Amino acid sequence: LGDPNISGYPAIGNGIIKSTDGGNTWHNIGLSDTRIISKIEIHPLNHNLVYAGTMGLPYAKNNQRGLYKSVDGGNTWSQILFVSDSAGVIDLLLDNTDTNIVYAVTWNRIRQNLRGLIAGPDSKIWKSTNGGSTWTQLTNGLPTGTFSRIAIAKSSTNHNVLYAEYVDSSSLDLYGIYKTTNGGASWTALNVSQVAGQVQGGFGWYFGNLTVNPYNENEI
Q: Which of 60, 78, 123, 167 qualifies as a FRET site for 116, CA 20 to 30 Å off?
């Protein structure tokens, strides 16, 4: 799958490998040109519905970045979200009650010996309500401007409760955490003043992850 954090010497992958016999044997089912696959999600209501977030080849701008979808268990793939040739999809969420609702997070990231792009204007959160045919950028309470990595997480008990973590483009540390209780229609900033700018050691682009306690949606 490659190194989704795209560190100093990022490893690149060769596509998605699938097993249909509990891991005894494996075979490649495609997306080798995407090089770095950040996240794979299989929909709990349909095991043939698979989404793969990709960051592309980290060394250069390319059009293989974005979000891919398969409706036949990975036999064929379609690119359903492409933002720019320097931004890929770093995080991904599926709604566990509706096969049409998808959330994706894009991030500007290039790593080479002459250039290290770690933030940009394409770091945003997107939502689709029709399985990826069309997308809406989520705003309404979320910060605007240039950011580094963004992460999203969802409550296991309430599909409308999500959190988003933003990494500042200058300090490369925690900028803010935002919460929605209506599936992304609006967001509220949480009070993180005690820890903002000092919890990721300037490596928020690498440690920019977020998890919600599956038994307590208020614990992140």
A: 78
